[in-house]
Amino acid sequence: MTSPLKDLGVTNPVLAAPMAGGPTTPAMVVAAARAGSVGFLAAGYKSHAAVQSEIAAVRGARVPFGVNVFAPNPVPIALDDYRRYAEEVQRTADRFGIVVPAEPVDDDDSFDAKIELLLSDPVPLVSFTFGIPEADVIRGLRRAGSVVVQTVTSRAEAARAEAAGVDVLAVQASAAGGHSGTLTPDRPVEALDLADLVAQVTHGVGLPVIAAGGVSNTEGVTAALRAGAQAVAVGTALLLADESGASATHRAALRDPLRRETAVTRAFTGRPARGLRNRFIDEHRSAPLGYPAIHHLTSPLRKAAAAAGEADLVHLWAGTGYRDAREESTEQILGRLAG
């Protein structure tokens, strides 16, 4: 089996996963390359111009890198469900003088514009999360010279990705922080240990695997590599890194000894995502499925709460290994985890 990562000169098998919404920065991606690794810019929630600017910043450092894109896989929401939830959220938003959208806002995160950018200004790696893009998109990126990576959460999803023509699989376990990359967000992801999931996928699909989800120490890295992964991607382990763009509120919550567990919720975005358990999660256990409508509904509130330091109203994305996060440089963290 060929190794696209080795072809890029990657010598450290612990990669910097993309974290949308701010934590991943160009500085983090460049620092990952200094560690012999590779990092992925997070294009999610950013405009075409913002993504272009970040690509230019990393390209200027002359290092290998990737860009992660949210592929459209919308979860429609019934109008009655949306309005019920909007009324719930509005009661909290009133404290900040925010008026939530009265009707669902749906978009595709400027998918076509981002693909056009990546075709006209190719990058070494392009990864997709949430959905599998059309085959012509995958073929176009590969013709442009990019290695195409697809996030999957099961062997069945891995088989679909292989059939679509991708080069590499990012196999994500349920312990991962942030959004699950599941292709079926209306169904729970099986709670498998990452090494077991990797073994399942590698025995059924003939593509290189990057393992992700809950890895926070060298033992986890070693287990995933022994199970058949060619590399391991970490995100939560980098949230406190010097180069992280995580908010001060998020950082403080990760260090707070009173926050003792994570939970999977759809309260913030309408898709299942894992974060530090807080009051918003507990009070909105009946939040409906509906991405990106719920994301747009709660986004102004979350931004205001983060600015005010109110961690109980913020999406504190974190995987199960969040206690191992350290305040070090990205280069030191990735080097330490590689052993």
From TrEMBL:
Needed co-factor(s): FMN
Domain of life: Bacteria
CDD domains: NPD_like
Flavoprotein as UniProt keyword: yes
Positions in coiled-coil regions: none
Gene Ontology molecular functions: nitronate monooxygenase activity
Entry keywords, A to Z: Detoxification, Flavoprotein, FMN, Monooxygenase, Oxidoreductase
UniProt signal peptide: none
Pfam family, one: NMO
SUPFAM superfamilies: Inosine monophosphate dehydrogenase (IMPDH) (SSF51412)
GO BP annotations listed: response to toxic substance
Catalytic activity line of the entry: 3 propionate 3-nitronate + 3 O2 + H2O = 3 3-oxopropanoate + 2 nitrate + nitrite + H2O2 + 3 H(+)
Family: Belongs to the nitronate monooxygenase family. NMO class I subfamily.
Name this protein carries in UniProt: Propionate 3-nitronate monooxygenase
